[in-house]
Amino acid sequence: MPDNGHKLVIKSVSKTFQTKKARVTALQETTFDVREGEFVTILGPSGCGKSTILRVVAGLVEPSSGQVLLDGREIKSPGADRGMVFQSYTLFPWLTVQKNIEFGLELKNVDKRARAEIAQHYLKLIGLSGFENVYPVNLSGGMKQRVAIARALANEPEILLMDEPFGALDAQTRTIMQELLLSIWEETKKTIMFVTHDVEEAIFLGDTIYIMTARPGRIKEKIRVGLPRPRDYAVKDAPEFLEIKRRILELIREESIKAANAV
Amino acid sequence: MDGGLLNSKNMYKSWTDCLGAAHFALVFALWSALAYAGVVSNTFLPTPDQVLQTAYRMVVDPAGDNLLHHALISTLRVTVGFFISAVLAVPLGIFMGTLPKVRAFFEPMMGFIRYMPASAFIPLFILWIGLGEPEKVMVIFWGTFFQQALMVMDVTKNVAGELVEVSYTLGAKKLAVFSKIILPASLPGIIDTLRITFGWAWTYLIVAELVGASSGLGYVIIQAGRFLKTDVIFVGILVIGLLGMLTDLIFKLLYRVMFPWLTREGA
């Protein structure tokens, strides 16, 4: 393993945008790393640059400074080794569920039978066997995001990047999706970076939480979540869970007071 | 899906269909009332049965003034002009929508020409290419092409950025993004653009046939106007309306067959 067993290394990455009026710092110099198979959640309010980190890792945004290394190689453009699931529904509406899942495999020229087998495997994993020939327009929001996860995983990426994937779902569906995601992660042992603004979601899913603050976006605190695995929804009532939640809310409060005084 | 919801949706649809039919009935009733009661003179407003009789006479007429003959010629002209325009405008519009440099080169000039009425070019076209069929086709082409290309450009330009981004993260390179994302995503919009601009092409056809033509529905209408044959004018206009509705229907059918993924099952 290159770089002391770190799967992903983010080295002094910053991002500034030039608008018509001013230079905006979306992300201050940020450094952290992700272990192989680790589930990292990034928690912060909107506009804190948490999505920017993910987009830099995906190669969709070029950092203003610093670099990102995946397995020791510098990331310069998007690629199939970093799968991404967006908050908005991004299934290709003209393709059936199966064709959506096969999209990346088709680009890699995987032959038809192998493609279908892989698609079947992931359909089963997300609990949507039998939906092969359905078009996305006929799926609920939760189903669409499950297929989007399957599509990203079918490509066998080194890391899965998730940008508030359950943000548009109702509370009940979101809870179910969180448990489903954890069971998928237990089975595939993928390295996952998951961005959210939901405190409970960040604790429930993550091994490590990075808490970000806004304007300018930077990482304020790193919290290790020692909760035993596999986890189910009952863990949300455990004293340790509540203790972490209390600590995070305290941090967020401090930050909002600071922001309010600054104005 | 919820059956009750679907049923109410279907009922709603049949209701809106009824409203559309009611509008036709209302206009027809108003026309009949004005014409039969003699409120408006026959010279200006023929009665419905007069128009029907004239239409029948023109269809069975074996001589040069046969209605079907004129309708066929007009349809041919409009189809050829529209086809040539579409074959050039669709690819150009797609490239303008996806490649900023191509857009920067073509858009200003096309935006400029778009505002010049195609009919104003007719004297020039007659001078340059004469009075034959190419001139008629040219008028239709000129009236359709620029709008078409700009509309296709907009459709292509507006393909959701997230679809493009997610395809990049699935390993797509530029060419695959173009052929596997931008093309299929903009195809429904392109077909819709063709449907709308085909209607406009009919307008330019009539303009083309008003000047220096000896056949076609536009010619029939302008001749009838000279001899105060209002019933013939009515027949000509109604036939154009029917042909337009027919092509619209064909495009809508094509749309449904080509893009089953746009409609929810059972809806």
TrEMBL record, chain A:
CDD domains: ABC_NrtD_SsuB_transporters (cd03293). Pfam families: ABC_tran. The keyword Cell cycle does not apply. Keywords: ATP-binding, Nucleotide-binding, Transport. InterPro entries: AAA+_ATPase (IPR003593), ABC_transporter-like_ATP-bd (IPR003439), ABC_transporter-like_CS (IPR017871), ABC_transporter_ATP-bind (IPR050166), P-loop_NTPase (IPR027417). SMART domains: AAA. Its EC number is 7.6.2.9. Signal peptide: none annotated. GO terms for molecular function: ABC-type quaternary ammonium compound transporting activity; ATP binding; ATP hydrolysis activity. It is an enzyme of class 7 (translocase). It comes from the Bacteria. Residues 8-239 form the ABC transporter domain. PANTHER family: ALIPHATIC SULFONATES IMPORT ATP-BINDING PROTEIN SSUB (PTHR42788:SF13), TAURINE IMPORT ATP-BINDING PROTEIN-RELATED (PTHR42788). This is ABC-type quaternary amine transporter. The lineage of its organism: Bacteria, Bacillati, Bacillota, Clostridia, Eubacteriales.
Automatic annotation (TrEMBL), chain B:
The chain crosses the membrane at residues 78-100, 112-131, 202-222, 234-255. Pfam families: BPD_transp_1. It is a multi-pass membrane protein. Residues 71-255 form the ABC transmembrane type-1 domain. One of its GO terms (biological process) is alkanesulfonate transmembrane transport. GO terms for cellular component: plasma membrane. Belongs to the binding-protein-dependent transport system permease family. This is NitT/TauT family transport system permease protein.
